[in-house]
Amino acid sequence: MVNIGLLGLGTVGTGIVQIIEDRKNYLQKLIGTEINISKILIRDMNKKRRIGIHEDKLTTDFSEIVGDQDIDIIIEVMGGLEEAYVYIREALNRGKHVVTANKAVVAKHLEELTFLAREKNKAFLYEASVGGGIPIIKQLKEQANLNNIQEIKGILNGTSNFLLTKMIEEDLDFKEALKMSQKLGYAEADPTDDIEGYDTRRKLRILTTIGFKDRVKEESILCQGISSIKTIDIQNIKSMDCTIKLLGTATLKDNKYYALVEPVIIKKNSYFGKVDYATNLVSFVGNKVGELRFYGEGAGSFPTANAILSDVIDIILKNYHKNYSLESNDLDNINKLFQGRYYIRTTLENDTKDKMIRYINEKEITDKLITKEKDVAFITKKILKKEIENIISKFNIRTENYFIGRLEV
Amino acid sequence: MVNIGLLGLGTVGTGIVQIIEDRKNYLQKLIGTEINISKILIRDMNKKRRIGIHEDKLTTDFSEIVGDQDIDIIIEVMGGLEEAYVYIREALNRGKHVVTANKAVVAKHLEELTFLAREKNKAFLYEASVGGGIPIIKQLKEQANLNNIQEIKGILNGTSNFLLTKMIEEDLDFKEALKMSQKLGYAEADPTDDIEGYDTRRKLRILTTIGFKDRVKEESILCQGISSIKTIDIQNIKSMDCTIKLLGTATLKDNKYYALVEPVIIKKNSYFGKVDYATNLVSFVGNKVGELRFYGEGAGSFPTANAILSDVIDIILKNYHKNYSLESNDLDNINKLFQGRYYIRTTLENDTKDKMIRYINEKEITDKLITKEKDVAFITKKILKKEIENIISKFNIRTENYFIGRLEV
């Protein structure tokens, strides 16, 4: 029997228990023994649960789980950052394999936990931390064995994608779309991480670190969110026969790389443009295999639980990269040199507005200009992204008063 | 050192040699030892080669390779059917791991070779046999551990997809498109397997056998090719704002399954509609993970070699499903009950043509009718596919005089 300690019994934890129950006979045949969730860490013993679990299995005390000699694998799906990190580290230190879906912990501590797992000769796997149900982490690790990964690109955050899709499809404004997303369970009460791009940045940091074989930090990724997008932006985007997606993009060439998270305006009918609601798409380019694209559910109880359990099966069957480690290729970050064509909309009082229009006209950086009352929207020629930051700071434009999206059309 | 015997030094074989050379240092670090192609089976010692290979490595005698105690893994990329099969079987029998890209052999002997490998405690892997560079076989095996696979769908043949794309994009007729495909290396001198759908059928047979956990034979898959498609069909399809793809589709519900290979008319802007030229797209639906889609290069030296070498690395690192076997779920094939809306074009002499039009009008199966000289094209209501076969045989229409595509719009 393989005993598992489960940290957390929320949506994903419940999905894990259900899949194991559902596939009981099949898994027993596959691995030759039973998978048993022997202990579950919860916060509140009195909370009502969707599924029937024997009370003896529940505990509020982590030490009961990590101290249990019979537990081989610990699955962490409790969320949060500090506590989860401490538990994962402790579990590895005590000789347990660890599987987690926690992108915040993985993004922050990927190197430390990977090295610790290797030192202890245990697995530290995190398939579910990026792309939900899409099997991307293992893929990328394996393809990076045979390929120089030259580009990684993805719609990696279901919440922001759901929100943007709703705005485009149903002409909702940002607040309405956010409210609806929250009501339907696609956005959290505090949506900051999702709408400001931080969640996408974490995932891109994980993918680039694996794919580019260097320690790409979150700070090395430029990050622009979608919280300031207005109805006028949606109208402008639609009038271009386009849609907008929050994309993580990184390219590597001659040991130099860009890495950005930003709203990108693309043709409605492009591959990325057709990835709607809470689905995710991840693509990467290898110098041998060419471009590979992976599409699937970016979140949800079963898809995420499915990704976690595929890690668990790999551990039980010893089908994981036992010697896997992270490398340091010492790449140069050249985000400062990043150029693109940008859509910029500002909302300003008349005098500032006029000054800004004069300024950008003098600079000759715009192809197109749309003004409407206080809103000025313009599309730039190919310029340094830094230039835009210059304009924003020169005219002291507040965060809520501008929206920027890169054009990929 | 891991010694490999390579059977075949054509496009893919050459790619394998090149990638191993190119990734030498990296692979040595990854697996802790060198990968060495120690012997290569070729047909003609005097043929000029694109790459420099030491003559001592080349042999025209298979027994020299299979008899070599130092060789652990045999890679088969020689193509063909009977000879390749005999060599693979012999290699497994002599205790070698085998990796192959040969879809014809895999389709015909999947069960036998899988069981033999298991008996001998060796690997028989065939990632490259379906989807070229797309890592689909391993994925599907793994997802089928946790999911009931309910649907498998794919553009699986690069040649026919290239050809159809050329016809749609450049208004070429079938012959011109075929000639161009042959000239560019996308179609073989004898393109029968590709354009009649046999190659797609083989791949669908492999995927369904893995995914549905039953031995789905080639004979259990209805198969319709594209060789009779004419310019008028392309025009009709384009006038519907659609495109046409040769799709393999299989669905499973309540132990009953359909499996078909047929031209399918879909919206130009749909996911499958946008997969052009020699690229492939495979999608499957699991009851837990939802739909997953995988896109990539369907053929080519490096993508195929890449897929083969990912199998080789899995063998060396023992990261393959050592106990993997095939199951027999005893499913019912219900192809006879398959229904769809169909586009049918026939080219007939006037009297037969009139009779047929009267017949289909009486049967009330058509939604729409387009006639032009000898060509009659009509779109049916949802009907049994069998009905179409009835019409074809009732009016004794010869293969080259009709074209059928299912509508998925």
Describe this structure in words.
Two copies of one chain form a homodimer. By secondary structure, the first copy, chain A, is α/β, with parallel strands linked by helices. Chain A has three domains: 2-125, 3-Layer(aba) Sandwich (Rossmann fold), CATH 3.40.50.720; 148-296, 2-Layer Sandwich (Dihydrodipicolinate Reductase, domain 2), CATH 3.30.360; 338-408, UreE, C-terminal domain (Alpha-Beta Plaits). Chain A has 14 helices and 17 strands. Chain A has helices at residues 11-22, 24-31, 62-66, 82-93, 103-119, 137-146, 158-170, 174-183, 192-195, 198-211, 231-239, 301-316, 350-363, 385-394, and strands spanning 2-7, 35-41, 58-59, 71-76, 97-100, 124-125, 149-155, 222-223, 242-253, 256-267, 279-286, 290-297, 332-333, 339-347, 366-372, 375-384, 402-408. In chain A, helix 1 (11-22) packs across helix 12. The longest helix of chain A is centred in the first third of the chain and has 17 residues, at 103-119. The N and C termini of chain A lie far apart (55 Å). At the A-B interface, helix 2, helix 6, strand 12 and helix 12 of A face helix 2, helix 6, strand 12 and helix 12 of B. Chains A, B: Residues 135-313 form the Homoserine dehydrogenase catalytic domain.
